[in-house]
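Hello forum,

I keep getting stuck at the same step: I have a sequence, I want structure tokens, and every attempt I make locally crashes halfway through. Rather than fight my setup again tonight, could one of you with a working pipeline run this one for me? It's a single chain of 122 residues.
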Amino acid sequence: MKQDKKEYLRLRPSKIEGVGVFTEIEFNEGEEIPVWDDDDMRIIENPSRREQIMCENYCVYWEGKYYCPKNWSRISLGWYLNHSSTPNATIDENDKCVAIRKIGLYEEIVIDYNCLSLHNND
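Reply #2:
Ran it on my machine without issues. Output:
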């Protein structure tokens, strides 16, 4: 029976900032880390007053647009990934989270925000 690794990812308090994504299993270099639910992103170019606060706190701002969760009340774990200048994962060209080295038990999954590659599919 294939193991669903998403079941072994947890949100916990982070020493980096706020809440982070932690693993209860190991991930090998090159292995996908399933932090995103399918179709969990929308682009907001001109947020309403209410959306502006949410966008500034929870979204990625890139080239004049906010990349946000599709549903503010039900967001994927990937939105909780913290930044590190020494990351253990990255977001690839297909917007998948991938381990760039072995990630150990109970380790926080962190990415370098500077290498995010967001693609506008409009």
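The chain has a mean pLDDT of 88. If your local run keeps crashing, start a new thread with the error log.
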